[in-house]
Design a protein that fits this description.
It is built from eight helices and twelve strands. Strand 9 and strand 10 form a beta hairpin. Helix 1 crosses helix 4, helix 2 crosses helix 3 and helix 2 runs antiparallel to helix 5. The longest helix is centred in the first third of the chain and has 22 residues.
Length: 330
C-alpha cells in the first residue's frame, strides 16, 4: 500500500467533478430540509460561509504577484431544486469585471474551484482531511483560517447532513461528496497555536505643533494638533529671529537667523546659535530670546572693535558670517 501522502498527491491530479463557474448543487437534508425548503437564514449562512472559505483559499494558494481581487471570488444563488431535501445551486457571480490587468481571473477561479473540491472530497475522512490540510496549506496561520472557515461552512445547516450532489437523467440527486460536519473538538485538534513573537518596545519622540485657545490669558478647551514631526538626529526645535534688538540698536537681517532651543536640567530655556557660538538662557522663552539678543549685540560690537584679534581664526570666521547676516544696524 503506498504512503498516505501519495493519496494527497492523487487528489491534486484528480479530474474535476465540480465547477463553480457552472455551479454546484448542495443538498441539505435532515430536519432543516425535511420539507424540501430552506430557511432564509440558513441559506444566507451557507452562502456567506462558502464565500469566505473560497476567498481564504484564494489568499492561501494564488500567487499574490498576479493580483488578487476577492470581489471576483463571490458566489450567488442560481437555481434551487426540491429533491430529498433542499438543494440550492451556487456559482461564481457573473457580475465580476477584470480590474487588475496582470491577473487572469478565469484561471484563478478554476484553481480555487479545484482546491475547494479537493477539500470537500476528503472532508468525510478525518485522517485524509488532516493530511491534506498539512500538505496543501503549510503556512500555519492561513491553515488555521481554512480550518475555522470550513468548520463554519460544514455547520451552516446545524446537525442536518449536507452533500454536494449532481442530478441524473431522471432529475434525481446522486451524491458526489458528503460534507461531514466538523465538530468543535475536531476543529480545535486541527488548529495550531501560533506563538506570537515578543513585542519589541520602542520609544520615539515627536514634536507637535498645536493650536490653543486663550480667553483672558487662560487656556480654554482642548488643544488642536496642527502637525507632528518625528525626532531624529537631524531634528530640532528652532527659534527664528527676523531682526534683533538690544537697547538702542536694531539689527536688520538679510534672512532669518535660526537658533536651537533646549531646556536644561533646571528647566531653563536656552536659545543657542552654534554657528555664532553664542546663547541666551533664562527661565522663560521670551527672556532667553532677550538674553540671546544681548549676546548677539556684544558679539557684533566686539567683532567690529579695534580690540578684536584679527589673527583669531574663529573670530575672523564669525565676523564674515555677521557681515553676510546683518544688512543694516540702526
Amino acid at each position: 500500500m503506498p504512503p498516505f501522502s501519495h493519496t494527497v498527491n492523487f487528489i491534486f491530479k484528480r479530474t474535476m467533478k465540480l465547477n463553480l463557474e457552472d455551479g454546484i448543487f448542495i443538498q441539505v437534508a435532515g430536519t432543516i430540509g425535511q420539507y424540501n425548503t430552506l430557511p432564509i437564514e440558513i441559506l444566507v449562512k451557507l452562502m456567506e460561509n462558502m464565500q469566505n472559505l473560497l476567498q481564504n483559499i484564494a489568499i492561501s494558494v494564488l500567487d499574490e504577484t498576479e493580483g488578487i481581487d476577492l470581489n471576483q471570488i463571490k458566489v450567488e444563488l442560481c437555481d434551487f431544486k426540491a429533491a430529498n431535501g433542499a438543494v440550492p445551486k451556487l456559482k461564481y457571480s457573473p457580475r465580476h469585471q477584470q480590474k487588475v490587468v496582470a491577473a487572469d481571473f478565469d484561471k484563478q477561479r478554476a484553481v480555487i474551484s479545484k482546491e475547494f473540491e479537493n477539500l470537500i472530497s476528503v472532508s468525510n475522512e478525518p485522517r485524509k482531511l488532516t493530511e491534506y490540510l498539512r500538505v496543501r496549506f503549510r503556512d500555519v496561520e492561513r491553515r488555521n483560517n481554512i480550518v475555522q472557515l470550513f468548520h463554519a461552512f460544514s455547520n451552516a445547516a446545524g446537525t442536518s447532513p449536507m452533500a454536494v450532489v449532481q442530478f441524473d437523467e431522471h432529475n434525481q440527486p446522486t451524491p458526489l461528496y458528503p460534507v461531514r460536519r466538523m465538530t468543535i473538538g475536531q476543529r480545535d485538534a486541527l488548529l495550531i497555536d501560533v506563538k506570537q513573537s515578543e513585542p519589541v518596545m520602542e520609544h520615539e519622540t515627536v514634536f507637535r505643533k498645536v493650536q490653543i485657545t486663550k480667553v483672558n490669558g487662560k487656556v480654554m478647551g482642548k488643544s488642536k494638533i496642527l502637525a507632528e514631526y518625528m525626532v531624529n538626529a537631524a531634528t530640532e526645535i528652532s527659534y527664528s529671529f527676523k531682526n534683533l534688538n538690544y537697547e538702542e540698536r536694531s539689527y536688520e537681517l538679510h534672512s532669518a537667523l535660526h537658533c536651537k532651543v533646549e531646556r536644561d536640567e533646571e528647566d531653563n530655556y536656552i536659545i543657542k546659535s552654534e554657528m555664532l557660538n553664542i546663547e541666551g538662557k533664562a527661565e522663560t522663552e521670551d527672556e532667553a530670546a532677550k538674553a540671546f539678543e544681548a549676546a548677539f549685540d556684544t558679539l557684533y560690537i566686539y567683532s567690529h572693535s579695534p580690540n578684536a584679534d584679527a589673527d583669531d581664526e574663529q573670530q575672523a570666521r564669525i565676523k564674515k558670517l555677521l557681515a553676510l547676516l546683518v544688512k543694516e544696524v540702526h
